[in-house]
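Hello support,

Our group uses your service weekly, and this is the first time we've seen a run hang past the timeout. The protein is NAD(P)H-binding protein. I'm not sure whether the cause is the sequence or the server load. Input pasted verbatim:
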Amino acid sequence: MKIGIIGATGKSGMTILNEAVSRNLDVTAIVRNKAKLDDKTINVIEKDLFSLTTEDLSSFDVVVDAFAAWGDNVDQHSTSLAHLTNILKDTDTRLFVVGGAGSLYVDMDKKIQLMDGAEFPDAYKPLAVAMGKALDSLRQVTDVNWLYISPAAMFDSEGQKTGNYVLAGEEFSTNDKGDSYISYLDYAVAAVDLMSQSEYNQTRVSVRN
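Update from on-call engineer: The timeout came from a worker crash unrelated to the input. Re-ran successfully.
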């Protein structure tokens, strides 16, 4: 399996890259600045996401979109996905999107999302809204094999790797203790596991411990 990881120098991208490398998979980091990579032996495409072409990605079985945008640039979650789906349309390459938890539904009718709640942090609301809009647009894409993977509400970059996780659907869920938690390391385990599975396509799943 050949895997390309966009944003491989970011927290989630690097964690997924390291997990894939640990399994001896053929991994390429797709980054704007290869000097930021810790492992200088990794295959690299040094290019901005918006400059990527179909030819750049055609050799990959899976492309992971771990692109992140903050502040005034949050709308790039939509524009970046639009670009990626455009260059991947009608190809066999699968697109895995590192998503957010704010758009998970908290009601069975799928009308109320986690970010709509009064307890959702104001500081993260613009990002959650932007990522939710990007997901809504992605749902309209039928000519790309995409999978959107939402983490739990608490997405812990400092958490431990247990190797255990629960795959859930569109609805917000918690464990037996009432916690919605996943470490970056266990999220990466789930993401790489999903690369070898074919039953999830053009849908969103969520991952928690």
